[in-house]
Structure formats: C-alpha cells, structure tokens
Specification:
single chain, alpha/beta, Rossmann fold, 5 helices, 4 strands
C-alpha cells in the first residue's frame, strides 16, 4: 500500500457519521486494532473478540504473532482456549504490518512502561 493510499483510507475513515458509527458499535460491527499485545493488549483483544467484534492485534514481536495465529497464548495466566476460539472464528487476528491500521474503525494504542522508563 502506498502512502497516498494509506492517506485516502485514513481520510475515508475520518469522514463518518457519528450516529451510524455508534449504531455499528452497538451491533458489534466495528473492527478494532490494538497496538501492543502484552499483558494488557492481549486480554483487551480477547475481551473485544468475546463480544463478537473483529479484532486485529498489532505487535513488533513476530513470535507473538506466530503464537496467536496458531491459537496459542504466550501469557501464562491466559489459557490458550481463550485465544484459539476467536482465532478459529476469524474474529481475532494478529500482525506486524502496521499499514493495516488504516483498515481499522477504532485503534487502541498501549505502551510498555519498560520501553518508556526514564531510570
């Protein structure tokens, strides 16, 4: 996808009718992008998917993406069954391709405190 195409996609997503968007949220028809699939992002992605919303998780760690696409959890307190069900249903996906953010209706960005530590 070229930069111009990405800009067009973003502009198209910004030109929305708030009432129509609210109705899509209530019908669970929006796509949610979650940036960062760690201890906060993965449970959040699972929570949205459990409500029937299509979720794409974004992370820079390819091993996390591989685990999720295989329907497995890499976080000890999250059973793999919580991951495998929405993956099998096609409502939970994961990628390192940040260009796909332009296809999301809503984006939630999470930061790692360790990555932003000042000490």
């Amino acid at each position: 996808m070229t930069e111009t195409q990405m800009q067009r996609n973003v502009a198209a997503n910004l030109a929305i009718d708030p009432a129509a968007f609210d109705a899509r949220i209530k019908r669970h028809e929006i796509s949610v992008g979650i940036i960062g699939l760690g201890y906060v992002g993965l449970p959040l992605a699972i929570a949205f998917a459990s409500k029937g919303m299509k979720v794409t998780g974004f992370d820079t760690d390819p091993s996390k993406i591989e685990w999720l696409k295989a329907g497995k959890s890499y976080i000890q307190h999250i059973p793999s069954e919580k991951v495998s069900a929405p993956v099998t249903q096609g409502i939970l996906n994961a990628t390192i391709d940040m260009a796909l953010l332009t296809e999301m209706d809503a984006i939630i960005g999470l930061r790692s405190d360790a990555a932003h530590s000042t000490s």
